[in-house]
Amino acid sequence: MNELLLEATTAHMETVYCMPQALGTQPTHYCPGCTHGVAHRLLAEALDELNMRERAILVAPVGCAVFAYQYFEIDGCEAPHGRAPAMATGLKRVQPESIVITYQGDGDLASIGAGEILHTAARGEPITVLFINNAIYGMTGGQMAPTTLSGQRTTSSPFGREGAPLQMSELLAVLPQTAYIVRRALHTPAHIRKAKKAILTALKVQEAGLGFSMVELLSSCPTNWGMSPAEALEWIETHMLPVFPVGDFKVAAAVKEL
């Protein structure tokens, strides 16, 4: 009787949540509470839904996500520190049919790679950039990053940062050749859903050949912030959002038609 009941029950069950094909089975090396894993999942889901997995190439950075290519069942490569946009430019030019994505942290993109991202965006290279902003250098011990908040204490600014952080989305949005520049956050389900939609749009922008796109994602770093995972998510809401407001900073007219 129990077997018949189980069979009847499972026959009417519908799968509503499963592991994306684009996501690998590599055990995570990220710290507990880090939202890199959320960003990975969103990218994998987007690649599956847009049927881009077989054409995608991921360019990994130097930083916490240095092994990002191991987490995906897609082609991937490693760029020197900060040079992911330059490598992605070359890949896209020799393989224009590919979907080329860089996955970069704030130290990689906004510090040593500031020149690369600026000129790649200025040229309007048709690549997609995922920019993880956790306001600190994560892998190397919690030093001050270009995105560290004013007054924020880090291992290299123990008395609090002087000056203001770089707001990369606002900076790149003013360049005429950028097509889609937005900022989202990863600390609540509602924000995560909006982040997924933005990643889908950014990939569609590349598919349509509309130009350079970047999705900035506010992320947590509980270990280097010295907080619990729950406290770190709250810190994004109370401290990062006032300085890095989520929103659309550049949406070209052609993008709105996608």
Overall description:
The protein is of the alpha/beta class and 258 residues long. The protein is 37% helix and 16% strand. The protein has one domain: 3-Layer(aba) Sandwich (Rossmann fold). Strands 2-1-3-4-6-5-7 form a 7-stranded mixed β-sheet, with helices on both faces. The radius of gyration is 19 Å and the shape is globular. 46% of the residues are buried. The model has no long low-confidence stretch (mean pLDDT 93).
Short description:
With 258 residues, this protein is α/β, with parallel strands linked by helices.
Distinctive features:
258 residues; alpha/beta; Rossmann fold; seven-stranded mixed beta sheet; 9 helices; globular
Set down the secondary structure blueprint.
Blueprint: H1 2-11, H2 36-49, E1 56-60, E2 75-78, H3 84-94, E3 99-105, H4 106-112, H5 114-123, E4 128-133, H6 168-173, E5 178-185, H7 189-207, E6 212-218, H8 222-225, H9 229-243, E7 247-251
Parallel strand pairs: 1-2, 1-3, 3-4, 4-6, 5-6
Antiparallel strand pairs: 5-7
| Full CATH superfamily name | Thiamin diphosphate (ThDP)-binding fold, Pyr/PP domains
Overall pLDDT confidence: 93
Largest beta sheet: what is the strand line-up?
Answer: 2-1-3-4-6-5-7
Looking at the structure, what is the overall shape? globular
Largest sheet: 7 strands, mixed
Distance between the termini: 53 Å
Helicity level, as a percent range?
25-40%
What would you report as the Rg, rounded to the nearest angstrom?
19 Å
What is the CATH architecture annotation? Answer: 3-Layer(aba) Sandwich
CATH level-3 fold name = Rossmann fold
> Which stretches are low in confidence, meaning pLDDT under 50 for 5 or more residues running?
none
What would you call the quaternary organization? single chain
CATH class identity? Alpha Beta
> Strand percentage, roughly?
15-25%
The number of E-state strands comes to 7
Helix tally equals 9
Number of domains: 1
User: What structural category do the secondary elements indicate?
Assistant: alpha/beta
What is the string of helix and strand elements? HHEEHEHHEHEHEHHE
